[in-house]
Design brief:
Layout lengths: L9 E2 L11 E5 H12 L4 H7 L4 H21 L2 E5 L1
Helix pairs in contact: 1-3, 2-3
């Protein structure tokens, strides 16, 4: 369950033309788990309950999202949030 839609669905490094960038796709669910854990500060069990999913699924989504965001930052890639 997704409680809110992201206000912005695309992030890119400043000063680099879009045509020169590779991009990483972050699913809506991955965005939501990042929001719940890192912005709202919920523990995994509470975040899983808020998303109406299991803790193991939440952990898988969180690990995937963190890897993608980390890769995009380190390698200077754009991030697109998709439904």
């Amino acid at each position: 369950m997704i409680r809110r839609d992201p206000a912005v669905t695309y992030y890119k490094p400043q000063g680099v033309p879009l045509r020169l960038l590779e991009e990483v796709e972050l699913s809506h669910e991955e965005w939501e788990v990042l929001r719940l854990r890192h912005v709202e500060g919920l523990e995994q069990l509470d975040a899983a309950a808020a998303m109406n999913t299991s803790q193991s699924t939440l952990q898988r989504l969180l690990a995937s999202a963190q890897k993608k965001v980390g890769r995009a930052i380190v390698q200077g890639m754009a991030i697109r949030i998709v439904k």
